[in-house]
């Protein structure tokens, strides 16, 4: 059985994330989408809310396993006998950062292979931080997220206004 891991914050999940997840899930028997829970970061959505948004955005994905993990991603991969990590990249800046992380992960878990998947060009400019800012100011961000994520963001920010 081929297994891969796609870790991230997914705060919120964007259509760029969804695109990478769908493409990755088509390549592997099992794809672990691992939601980061880093106590050093401030998230808009709880880990459980982010998983629920991913599930609602990908309702027909039978080979996807959703998990929350607060430790090192390589530890999760090792614990689940996963030797392939997917990382989405938009451009040179993303690649530079992701490459350095891949080398660190390789030192920690030599059996881990990191596959860089370029984003679909139509999602090149989409960033979760940008979406949160647009949502906060009531701008139209509907082309950047799925309908369940749009509704959740509108609900979060309607409470803050």
From TrEMBL:
GO function terms (MF aspect)? ATP binding; pantetheine-phosphate adenylyltransferase activity
What keywords were assigned to this record?
A: ATP-binding, Coenzyme A biosynthesis, Cytoplasm, Magnesium, Nucleotide-binding, Nucleotidyltransferase, Transferase
The cellular component terms of Gene Ontology attached to this UniProt record, alphabetical and capped at eight, are: cytoplasm
- A Pfam short name: CTP_transf_like
Pathway field: Cofactor biosynthesis; coenzyme A biosynthesis; CoA from (R)-pantothenate: step 4/5
Q: Which residues bind substrate?
A: 9, 41, 73, 87
Please list the cofactors this protein needs. Answer: Mg(2+)
- In this chain the Cytidyltransferase-like domain maps to 5-133
Where does it reside? Answer: Cytoplasm
| Biological process, per Gene Ontology | coenzyme A biosynthetic process
Which HAMAP family did the record assign? Answer: PPAT_bact
Q: What's the stated role of this polypeptide? A: Reversibly transfers an adenylyl group from ATP to 4'-phosphopantetheine, yielding dephospho-CoA (dPCoA) and pyrophosphate.
| Family affiliation | Belongs to the bacterial CoaD family.
Record note on quaternary structure: Homohexamer.
What protein name applies here? Phosphopantetheine adenylyltransferase
Record lineage: Bacteria, Pseudomonadati, Spirochaetota, Spirochaetia, Spirochaetales
Q: Give the gene that encodes this protein.
A: coaD
């Amino acid at each position: 059985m081929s297994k891969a891991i796609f870790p991230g914050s997914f705060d919120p999940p964007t259509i760029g994330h969804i695109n990478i997840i769908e493409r990755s899930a088509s390549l592997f028997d099992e794809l672990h989408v691992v939601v980061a829970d880093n106590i050093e970061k401030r998230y808009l959505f709880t880990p459980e809310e982010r998983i629920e948004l991913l599930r609602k955005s990908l309702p027909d994905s039978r080979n996807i396993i959703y998990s929350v993990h607060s430790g090192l991603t390589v530890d999760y991969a090792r614990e689940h006998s996963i030797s392939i990590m997917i990382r989405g990249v938009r451009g040179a800046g993303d690649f530079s950062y992701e490459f350095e992380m891949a080398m660190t992960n390789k030192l920690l878990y030599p059996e881990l292979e990191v596959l860089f998947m370029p984003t679909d060009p139509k999602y090149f400019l989409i960033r979760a931080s940008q979406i949160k800012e647009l949502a906060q100011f009531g701008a139209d961000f509907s082309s950047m997220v799925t309908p369940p994520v749009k509704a959740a963001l509108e609900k979060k920010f309607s409470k803050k206004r």
